[in-house]
Amino acid sequence: MSHFSSIKTRLNDADALVAALRELGLQLVVHAEAQPLQGYYGGSEGQSAEIIIPAAGLGTQADIGFARQGDGTFQLIWDLYEAERRYLPNSSLSFTQLPERLPALYARHLAIAVAHRKGHTVTAVEARADGGYTLRIQPRTVQSTTDKRRR
Fold it and tell me: Which Pfam families match (predicted)?
């Protein structure tokens, strides 16, 4: 029997989540307010999400959604029956590998965004054998007060 299941995550930055999903080649729609998800049998089963990966682009009958929770994190909502039988479009990654792969991609996008917001430069991003990433970040140079007085 097909129905939506939910997985709690620690993901809380919508921009980093969207960037990671797009890197995986997923077509998605981002809504300001949660919208009903399409379930296997056409109904939403009362499930809604702000970030939706439509079923049509997945080759499935049910959408995948990421719904913002009260604590600011996103909850993954999907149909496990569909997930067990499919691979992500244009990928050798199965749907069931998505919760394993997504956190590292998300963390990389978030770390790069935070570094840029603080004025730092990301000089290298290296994929590790364990699926994680190593980032090299060049801190912004801060002018000393002595240098400022000389001008």
Answer: DUF1257
Please give the full DSSP string across 99-137, using - where no structure is assigned: HHHHHHHHHHHHHHHHHHHTT-EEEEEEE-TTS-EEEEE
For residues 7 and 99, is the Cβ–Cβ distance under 8 A?
Answer: yes
Total-model pTM: 0.83
3-state secondary structure of 55: helix
Q: Length of the chain, please?
A: 151
Whose structure tokens read 């980093």? 16
Q: 87: which DSSP letter?
A: B
- Sites in the chain below the pLDDT cut of 70: 1-2, 85, 142-151
Question: Tokens standing for 19?
Answer: 């960037």
Alpha-carbon Rg for the chain, nearest whole angstrom, is 19
pLDDT tens string 59-91: 888 899 999 999 999 999 988 777 776 777 777
Q: Can you spell out the DSSP letters for 8-49?
A: E-----HHHHHHHHHHTT---EEEEEEEEPP-TTSS-TT-EE
Report residue 52: phi and psi, to 5°. -125, 130
Contact between 37 and 77 (Cβ < 8 Å) = yes
Q: Rounded to an integer, what is the distance from CA 39 to the centroid of its chain?
A: 21
